[in-house]
Amino acid sequence: MDLTPDPLFRRLAGTVRARLAAAEDAAEARAALRGIEAPAFEAPVGAGGFDLGLACGVVVCSELGRRALPDVHSGPSMALDAMASSGTAEAAEAATALAAGDTAVHLAGFDLLGAPAERSLHAVPDGGALRLSGTVSLPGNWIPGAHLLVPQRTGAGVRLVLLPEDRVRDRTRPAPGGRLVELTGLVAAEAEQIGDLGDGTPSPDPDGVLGRARVRAGAYLYGLALGAQDLAVRHAGSRQQFGAPIVTRQAVAFPLARQRIALGATRLALLEAAWHADADEPFSDLAVEALALAAETATRVVRTALQIHGARGMSLGEPVHAHYLLLPAAVRALGAVSVLWREAGRRRLAAVRVRVPAP
Q1: Kind of pairing, strands 105-107 and 147-154?
Q2: Does the domain made of 7-103 have the CATH classification 1.10.540?
Q3: I want to staple 99 with a disulfide (CB 3.0 to 4.6 A). Which of 31, 49, 189, 219 is the partner?
Q4: What pLDDT, on a 0 to 100 scale, did the predictor assign at position 124?
């Protein structure tokens, strides 16, 4: 892996950052990204995209997190990955709309992939259709008209189902911090089944759809953390106490420095996973480890940033508070950190068993 910063991605990050500077919510973020054709960055050429690779998705998701904007990029990108692997004519048509930025997609239910059987989402085949079950949560920044991408376990593995908003509108109810969608009894047509993650625990993910989604989710968390720390450093440099900025105090400066190093390590882990994905090399192990690391790092960094701001950081009008509000849902979006680390451990052990023959 070449660790030299790619000039393309540095320029891309600056462009995305400038476009998102004036965005205040999900709708404005989507409009800003459409203005630079960001939805097409990772999309295959056949869908009207540029096929620039997952590394571009890392850049876009990082900048969304850095500005504390909802992650409006990961959902459509995961749906595009699934459709690219399915190869059907219906999927190709839907992929074109996604690459153009015409369709918003929310990910839901992926936090239950590693949950116990009684809590996971199961579907029963009904001819070519699937009879869905389970309840999934949505964030409070749900985009009106957005499709819902959910995983459903069947006897043949995990299927990915893309549901238009009008199919779940009457099944949605308010909940603390967002909404809940009741899927039980809903029948997904064959055309709404856009891909699969394979059969097994952890999911084999033969086409890398889940692995790519994990890298993007990790990049968003990295961006949330980086933006929160930038705000903390700025605040610590301007806040005076006992005649000097509080950043001159070791109790403030040392945690910030230590976490800056952790952020650098997280960035490298994400870029390594993306590099292997774009080189068509195995990357599933790297992806789950990078996401788990990003979740832990973001939790620590945002907490420290809030502490440095003091009581002021709990004010809704303070920019750092936006990072704090987005963090919980982002951390658990694709599974609890403990579940991710357990999967990473199982993958490492499985790799060792393959390399080391029995005595």
Answers
A1: parallel
A2: yes
A3: 49
A4: 93
Q: Which two tokens mark 132? A: 């869905």
- Backbone angles phi and psi of 149, in degrees to 5: -105, 115
CA–CA distance, 51 with 157 (Å, rounded to integer): 28
pLDDT beneath 70, residues of the chain: 1-5, 86-89, 117-119, 354-359
| Sheet with 187-188, edge to edge strand ranges | 124-126, 129-131, 187-188
CATH architecture of residue range(s) 106-197: Beta Barrel (2.40)
> Class of 209-351 per CATH?
mainly alpha
Phi, psi of 241 (to 5 degrees): -150, 130
At 355 the pLDDT is: 63
Helix H or strand E encompassing 113: none
CA 126 to each of CA 154, 189, 250, 261: distance values in angstroms, whole numbers, following the listed order: 11, 9, 63, 52
What are the structural domain ranges in the chain? 7-103, 106-197, 209-351
pLDDT of the residue at 263: 97
Write out the DSSP string of 201-223.
SS---TTSHHHHHHHHHHHHHHH
| Angle (nearest 5°) at CA 93 between 103 and 196 | 80
pTM of the model: 0.94
- Confidence (pLDDT) at 277: 97
pLDDT at 139 (0 to 100):
77
How far apart, in whole angstroms, are the C-alpha atoms of residue 308 and residue 324? 13
Confidence at residue 92, expressed as pLDDT on a 0 to 100 scale: 74
Q: State the Cα–Cα distance between residues 25 and 95, nearest whole angstrom.
A: 25
Q: What is the dihedral of CA 57, 61, 66, 68, to 10 degrees?
A: 160
Query: Same CATH topology for 106-197 and 209-351?
Result: no
